[in-house]
Amino acid sequence: MITEDRLAMVAPCGIDCGICEMHSCEENSPLYNRLIERGIPKESLPCKGCRSIDGMCPVIKAKCETFICWAGRDISFCFECDEFPCIRLHPAADRAEILPHNMKVYNLCTIKKSGIEDFLSQSADIKLRYFKGKIHVGNGPGMQ
Ligand code: SF4
Ligand code: SF4
């Protein structure tokens, strides 16, 4: 059974804050130290997730423009928006090997198709395939 708190860790843009390094560093001191070395302010760690911190994502050190846009609408996720997919969710190669922005639209489509609970059962695997998978051209990424 997935708790309400865990469900609320999925950001409006589709990023799963529940498996973000900034969130999971609480019980991982080497990871915590690496994040501090990278300049993440101590007071932001562990991050409580986008919805809890009102879009003040410590990665961007400002209020997230996507969050601001979403907060003005009566929707839970960006896929419910008439403008979806808008430019804020556009894929980009810039820092794609370290940041999860290119996963947003796939995550949102999975939530739309299967529901948030089913998405959460797949979320860690989606992230692993994105960052560690091998692309099989024409057939998507796999772990082999
Ligand atoms: S708000 Fe940003 S830093 Fe915080 S858990 Fe979510 S993606 Fe990570
Ligand atoms: S315009 Fe874009 S960022 Fe804003 S709520 Fe709609 S899909 Fe999300």
Q: Could you walk me through the main structural features you see in this protein, from its secondary elements to its overall organization?
A:
This protein has helices spanning 4-7, 21-24, 29-37, 65-71, 104-114, 116-132, and strands at residues 134-136, 140-142. Helix 5 (104-114) runs antiparallel to helix 6 (116-132). The protein is mainly alpha-helical and 144 residues long. The N and C termini lie far apart (31 Å). It has a two-stranded antiparallel sheet with strand order 1-2. It has one domain. The site of one iron/sulfur cluster has 12 residues, from helix 2.
Protein traits:
144 residues; mainly alpha; two-stranded antiparallel sheet; 36% helix; globular; binds iron/sulfur cluster
The biggest beta sheet is recorded as: 2 strands, antiparallel
Which structural class matches the secondary elements? mainly alpha
The protein's oligomeric status is single chain
Helix content: 25-40%
Overall average residue pLDDT: 95
> How much β-strand is present in the residues?
under 5%
| Heterogens | iron/sulfur cluster
Q: How large is the radius of gyration?
A: 15 Å
